[in-house]
């Protein structure tokens, strides 16, 4: 009735159909995968500036911002501290001009610079930062400017003074007074 050659050709044809069919992964089993071809713009460079009066929570929060930015896949260009700004506060005794106490407060400043931040992920990132911010920490997010880079460095007053002296030595009147000409 059945021949062996006919049975062999039927099994061979089933094997070729199976090899031609697409392999379905477990993700595609119940829902198809939709490929999105949307393109969202990226922010070029952003500064996340953290300011606070308490040093330890600010340092820990900066490391938290750094970790979360890494998990979001942002490029971290730089993470640095800016010199603290000190303010002197004077309190007076009630109804008098006598000084009750003087307090010096230092406001610490940390900056995390991010690059290639997709505009679709930024609101989620900022909501997460705002939700987990410790008490007393101010968060400012803005695009990077040259003024931000300049505020990072402390000016060397002695070096500037010496540079001005050297420039003054180029003046012909001063050179004559020194007897160089």
From TrEMBL:
Question: SMART domains per the record?
Answer: Ribosomal_S10
Where are the bilayer-spanning segments?
none
UniProt keyword Membrane, yes or no: no
- Which cellular components does GO assign to this protein? mitochondrial ribosome; ribonucleoprotein complex
Annotated ranges, domain Small ribosomal subunit protein uS10: 47-142
Pfam families in alphabetical order: Ribosomal_S10
Keyword terms of this UniProt record = Ribonucleoprotein, Ribosomal protein
Q: Which domain of life is it from?
A: Eukaryota
Q: Which PANTHER family match?
A: LARGE RIBOSOMAL SUBUNIT PROTEIN ML48, MITOCHONDRIAL RIBOSOMAL PROTEIN L48
Q: What name has this protein been given in UniProt? A: Ribosomal_S10 domain-containing protein
User: What is the species listed in this Swiss-Prot or TrEMBL entry?
Assistant: Panagrellus redivivus (Microworm)
